[in-house]
Recover the amino acids of this structure.
């Protein structure tokens, strides 16, 4: 068994979900691992990672709207407001979704389900470069 | 160190939590790994995985009811309604719980806590077969 | 590649988030792994794990308050009340956060982002010893 690591940078156009499946698949395929496990880790606390349906843009819209209702950008609710009304809600949305993901590798490919995609979830109003570490172990 | 992979299929009787600890333990024990790490990955976006208390059925009931209140099946809240009123809530509940789990292996056994079980969480009204991939690495 | 395992015990002073980054880093550094992947697993269902901003105590306070509002300690909402009004909410908060975490190891160090810390999240009113298993694989 061997391991491989990679640093991926991605930036969403706007708040919400940006699919990064093809970037992740591209690097993974290049390592020629037949069976294994891929881990993704985001080095931020106001953006997160998620595996979600990647067919309907409405699903992504509805998920983002749900989280906007659940975690209001209302400064009266928070003490931590000095970085803007969207910062504390971003930390909470990050806590409710994922800092890391695992995806098995089968037959040399990411074993995602037919309708699953890998997403960067930007929670700030002004997107920024986000660093995602990839760790692959396998043979 | 070696790795092992397996494909498990499970189907809940109804919406909610189905314990799959014994199926997962059975396969894991068969690989004769003394120390290692087990990963479970579900290949769906309207069902998810969870480690939860496995003693009281009331805990499972209350958790499911909490999520039903948190993510209402009210079509007025969503754009994505063409697959039924329970589909978009299922994607959201999936996003709030887990697509994958890790459990360490110690002394040849899943190192779950005394009251922890591994569950498939079915979010659709009509359950279907769900595919869970198992990846085990260890020695 | 080799693997290492460790059992960490931590106890919060009160309900809420307790940073355990230095304990986790200390053990990890002692294994002299240059590149790899660390997994943390908590053996409980009324406490959980989280990676969160570790600069502002207000962030931790706001996150805890958000979850207290989201998951009220109101016995009328739950069937499972025999272990106290904070027990079922603790299981729900555990389900909405993490039972396990992964952090890559780069250049011999935990590859946490600049503002990321590893936290034990105690959800019970009376904190208790919590057991966290560490699994490290790498070279």
């Amino acid at each position: 068994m061997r391991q491989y690591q990679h640093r991926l940078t991605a930036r969403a156009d706007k708040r919400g979900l940006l699919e990064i499946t093809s970037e992740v698949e591209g690097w993974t395929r290049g390592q020629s691992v037949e069976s294994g496990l891929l881990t993704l880790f985001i080095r931020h606390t106001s953006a997160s990672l998620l595996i979600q349906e990647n067919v309907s843009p409405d699903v992504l819209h509805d998920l983002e709207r749900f989280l906007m209702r659940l975690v209001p950008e209302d400064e009266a609710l928070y003490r931590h407001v000095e970085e803007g009304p969207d910062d504390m809600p971003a930390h909470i949305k990050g806590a409710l979704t994922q800092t890391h993901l695992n995806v098995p590798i089968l037959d040399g490919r990411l074993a995602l389900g037919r309708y699953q995609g890998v997403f960067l979830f930007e929670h700030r109003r002004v997107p920024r470069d986000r660093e995602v570490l990839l760790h692959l172990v396998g043979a």
